Amino acid sequence: MPEQRKSQQPVLQLDRLVRTHGSGATEVHALRGIDLSVFPGELVAVMGPSGSGKSTLLTLAGGLDTPSSGRVVVEGTDITTASRRQLAALRRRSIGYVFQDYNLIPALTAAENVALPRELDGISARKARASALAALEEMGLGQLADRFPDEMSGGQQQRVAIARALVGDRRLVLADEPTGALDSETGESVLALLRARCDAGAAGILVTHEPRFAAWADRVVFLRDGSVVDETLRSHADSLLHGQAAGQ
Amino acid sequence: MSIRHGLLALLERGPRYGSQLRTEFESRTGSTWPLNVGQVYTTLARLERDGLVAPDGEDAAGHTLYAITDAGRTELFQWYERPVDRANPPRDELSIKLAMAVGAPGVDIRAVIQSQRHATIKAMQDYTRLKATALAAVESGRSHERDDVAWLLVLEQLIFQTEAEARWLDHCEARLVRLSLPADRRAAEPEPPQAAAETPAPTTTQPRTARSRRG
User: Fold this and answer.
1) What is d(CA B191, CA A209) in angstroms, rounded to the nearest whole number?
2) How distant is the alpha carbon of residue A44 from its chain centre?
3) Pairing of strands B53-58, B64-68
4) Which one of A191, B29, B55, B121 is separated from A211 by 20 to 30 angstroms, measured CA to CA?
5) pLDDT per residue as tens digits for the range B173-210
């Protein structure tokens, strides 16, 4: 597997990413030059104290904010130089978000929530529903298809949110404290699903302050004061490291 | 570590011979605490001396079998009922190391903390992967289910333990950062890590940390 990954393009590549808020005396360096690549099949956890830049990294990776300098490349497209239209299309087609508070639309069923990004992308409602049902089925959530968010537990809603994040061809899931509002058992099952989706070929970034959830990742990146201070690697992922070093 | 009681617990299910006890002990605990056969026989000899087990003939292959005695059974159930003694915390190398690193000249305690955090999270990643495997085995209902469940519990204990260590390390770092700030800044900035963001040279503040602790 590492051999295979090595030859693959990263789904997400961050190059010397810098984000500075304000200027002069009030200047705050949220990110000070981050390099990070996430390959298909890889789940990367980002840890660090609050204010270390974890969430900034995620919003930049998802094109929700613009870096002060540096590049964000998603599936080969540099989103920092992309047009608004291209960026919007990329956000719809390539990037999925999972937030702490699920963010499902209350008036829509699970299947409709999952189908929504595809419908927004101009796919017929029937096709969108079919792919939503397929995604839910594949993740073992088929029985939730016709339930509304308030008829589901927090853990079920979060799993549906993961299905929505990865419906269609989308391969990049950005999760910001997805287990934050869940008890530890349920949080675990959400992580297990995220892990399984990455094992099936997606690429994921998980921002968390919980070591137990970070431990599900292939790599754990430690941020402090806007810089990567350290990262762990899975023991069998050494060749991945070399592949990455060569790519930089 | 109570190998004694572990062996008694296994013998409670019927007579067994030495290397069989070793295999079963390791299978239950996923070889987390490997035993050698020598330890097993030494322990059996002591249990026999104390009247808690007794030789019980041989099996067809000529292995000497041991059986639990009534006294052994009483001891075993008392063990289950009695909480594990927490009066004397076991010596912990990491606590001792950090205690020594506080204010030590030429030691960057944040680097000490980070290198440990790396190792601790790495261990958690390994345990978590093993846990996923163990969980799959339990859920598939394959053979030796009881041993798989026991192994799962042991693994989860290791995960909780490493988690506690990782949290404690985070706490230590936050605490040290906060203590290194002048008092007025401390009051103004309740959240230590954000305060850290504006203190770009944390290592130079170490000696001050030590002084404020002593004072």
Assistant:
1) 15
2) 9
3) antiparallel
4) B29
5) 989 988 887 666 655 555 444 444 444 444 444 444 33
Q: How far is B127 from chain A (nearest CA, A)?
A: 8
Tokens representing B173 are 């770092």
B164 and chain A in contact, CB less than 8 A: no
CA closest to A184 among chain B residues:
B160
Cross-chain Cβ contact A211/B118 below 8 Å: no
**Run of H or E residues at A54:** helix A54-61
A174 in helix, strand or coil?
Answer: strand
Any A CB within 8 A of B118 CB: yes
Nearest CA in chain B to A189: B132
pLDDT averaged over consecutive 10-residue blocks of chain A (248 residues)? Answer: 63 96 88 95 93 92 93 93 89 88 92 92 91 90 95 92 88 92 86 91 93 94 92 56 36
Which of A31, A188, A208, A212 to probe by mutation at the B interface, max B CB count within 10 Å? A212
Dihedral of CA B8/B9/B10/B13: which sign? positive
- ipTM for the predicted complex comes to 0.74
